[in-house]
Design goal:
globular, mainly alpha, 11 helices, about 210 residues
Length: about 210
Amino acid sequence: MTNLKIVHPHPTNDWDATLASIAADMKDAPLNVHKLMAHNPALLQAWWDFRNHSVNGGTLGPHLAELVILRVSVHLGAWYEWGSHVDRALRIGMGMDRINAVLLADLDAKWSAQEALVLRAVDDLMMHRAISPQTRTHLEQQISTEQMMDLIAIHGMYVTLGCMIGTWGLVLDDDVAHRIRNHTSQTAFEDASKTFNASMVRIPHNGGASA
């Protein structure tokens, strides 16, 4: 078997000079995922505006964007993304009961019609590579075309990151791990993600949420 190349996060002090503005944007403390991408400076530069747009939620706003990112993380079984965005969701005022509900395939009364449809749209995208006509019928009554484009784009950004993280492996940043240590764990998340994905394969394409 061929030995696989190990790619560690690239220390900030060794970053290409073209990335100085990105390091400054992160107050010289970029996340491990940024350090991983820093191995390709041109990609990280091109990525950064999209990253800032997505992290701020675009036209969706922070709350709905975090639901999108968390749901993508569950589909991918991506602990790094889940842990990072549990941290971010808590900081914007989302409670752990709401965050943990993202781990469940069923979209019951705990969600507003808008939230449930956004989550179902992510399920459609992850499972079928498009938002189904049935989901769109209701979603278009809740969000604008611009917001739907942001939903699709933000989902895509975190699929890309999740694939990079899954390819090379990435340890959750120490400060993030410390902040969420009493709220979630890698084992609990991975178990919940497996249960979620096992249940989702039985949900048909047109099984969207109603409004």
